[in-house]
């Protein structure tokens, strides 16, 4: 049969298909000298034992310091929207999200944190984590997904825009470091 194109509805209901993301970099460079054929496994959050790895990954990447309570707020309330990438026994990527009602009408997914170990970048790990989170949000009937990223973070902007997100709003001096943020939005319905 013919495959539906991105944005078209699939045969399993009313959710639009997301772009396919190959899992491991097929010769796309990067990756801190690692070979291109390493095996990355993706898994859902299952235990508080994963919390230190999530915190370590995110603290290495994000400009905002978060308390343990911030991580627990997201992960304990929406464990089904937290995914990890693993190479062997090492966690090399994580995404932390939530899903709730915005203005009592729109079921809005929110990507709170995304981080990939700098030695594992350019391998579609971030795109795969985002795609897994969005797919989980679609299963929970999300209408849209939003996030903020630093206006200077061109890698993140390119990643999210490739996945269909659009620039929705500029938030001036949003981060503690004084940098502006861009709110990005993906409409699902």
Describe what is shown at a glance.
This protein has 189 residues and is of the alpha+beta class. The chain has four helices and seven strands.
Overview of this protein structure:
The protein is α+β, with helices and mostly antiparallel strands and 189 residues long. The chain contains four helices and seven strands; from the N terminus they run E-H-H-E-E-E-H-E-H-E-E. It is globular, with a radius of gyration of 16 Å. The longest helix has 15 residues, at 125-139. A seven-stranded mixed β-sheet has the order 1-2-3-4-5-7-6, sandwiched between helices.
Cα distance, first to last residue? 25 Å
Question: What structural class do helix, strand and pairing data support?
Answer: alpha+beta
Helix/strand order: EHHEEEHEHEE
Largest sheet: 7 strands, mixed
> Strand portion, in percent?
25-35%
Low-confidence stretches: 1-31
Number of helices: 4
Q: How do the strands of the widest beta sheet line up side by side?
A: 1-2-3-4-5-7-6
Overall mean pLDDT score?
85
Shape: globular
Total strand count, please?
7
Q: Report the helical percentage.
A: 10-25%
Radius of gyration: 16 Å
């Amino acid at each position: 049969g013919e495959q539906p194109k991105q944005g078209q509805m699939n045969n399993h209901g009313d959710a639009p298909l997301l772009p396919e993301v190959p899992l491991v970099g097929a010769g796309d460079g990067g990756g801190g000298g690692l070979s291109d054929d390493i095996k990355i496994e993706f898994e859902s959050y299952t235990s508080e034992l994963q919390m230190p790895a999530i915190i370590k990954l995110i603290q290495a990447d994000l400009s905002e310091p978060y308390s343990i309570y911030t991580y627990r707020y997201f992960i304990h309330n929406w464990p089904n929207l937290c995914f990890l990438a693993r190479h062997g026994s090492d966690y090399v990527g994580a995404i932390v999200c939530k899903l709730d009602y915005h203005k009592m009408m729109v079921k809005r997914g929110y990507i709170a944190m995304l981080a990939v170990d700098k030695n594992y970048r350019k391998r579609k790990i971030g795109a795969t984590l985002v795609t897994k989170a969005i797919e989980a949000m679609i299963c929970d009937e999300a209408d849209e997904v939003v996030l903020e990223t630093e206006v200077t973070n061109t890698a993140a902007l390119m990643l999210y825009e490739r996945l269909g997100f659009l620039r929705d709003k500029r938030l001036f001096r949003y981060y503690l470091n004084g940098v502006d943020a861009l709110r990005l939005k993906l409409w699902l319905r």
